[in-house]
Amino acid sequence: MTEKKPKDDTEKPDFEALYGEDERNLNRTTQEELGITNITLATQLKEALEAEEPRIIKVKGAVKQADLPDGFEIIAVSGMTYHDKKGNEFYGDGETIIRYKVALQGIREGARKDAHAQRGHYPADKHEHSGFLKIIPQLTTEDRELIAKATEKVIDAISGKHRATIKSRG
Predict the structure, then answer these.
(1) Strand 95-103 and strand 73-77: pairing?
(2) What total of structural domains would you count in the chain?
(3) Does any domain span residue 87?
(4) Cα(113)–Cα(9) distance, rounded to whole angstroms?
(5) Any idea what DSSP says for residue 65?
(6) What are the phi and psi torsion angles at 56 (to 5°)?
(7) Nearest to residue 78, comparing CAs of 57, 66, 61, 65?
(8) 142 within some domain
(9) CA torsion angle for 117, 123, 124, 127 (degrees, to 10)?
(10) 3-class SS at 3?
């Protein structure tokens, strides 16, 4: 009897065996079979738009949680906590480790661009035009009269020069 190993989530499926040689041409049905649906893509996009990274700092002295701004959290405090005669709490020497989160702007920006691209908010990268364009000018009677006068002047100028050349040869 052969033992079945538990499937490792990081193991990549053998696309070539499943779908042929070209793994780049997976169609939508194939992607959905692998669990890549519109809902999972939208969920991952939302997570990327809210991407944060935890940061940790160590400060000298003890710090109260109430003294920290929102989003900052005390992880550990070394040193002693003392109480005065009135029962007020104060801290002695020591160190405090504080955790806070920083927005990952690069990941958020990339996710925002992906969201806009998926919705078609960007112009096409390539424009191809084919066919022909027929232009029919719409001329008024004034336009036609101006064109006729200009044409007559050009013809007179050309014929005048032509006549002068004929006379000089003769």
Answers:
(1) antiparallel
(2) 1
(3) yes
(4) 28
(5) G
(6) -125, 135
(7) 61
(8) no
(9) 180
(10) coil
User: Looking at the predicted structure, is the pLDDT value of residue 14 above 70?
Assistant: no
Q: Tokens standing for 91?
A: 């801290």
Q: Which of 97, 61, 104 shows the shortest CA–CA distance to 81?
A: 61
**Domain with 49 in it:** 30-118
Query: What end-to-end distance do the CA atoms of the chain give, in Å?
Result: 118
Return the percentage of the chain with pLDDT > 70, whole number.
75
Residue ranges with strand state E in 29-80 = 52-60, 73-77
Residue 132 token pair: 């022909």
1 pLDDT band, cuts 50/70/90, is: very low
Segment 72-93 shows an average pLDDT of 80
Is residue 152 domain-resident?
no
Tokens of 52: 């944060």
Question: Which neighbouring-strand residues pair with 54?
Answer: 101
Residue 158 located in a structural domain: no
**Scanning the structure block, which residue is given the tokens 């793994």?**
23
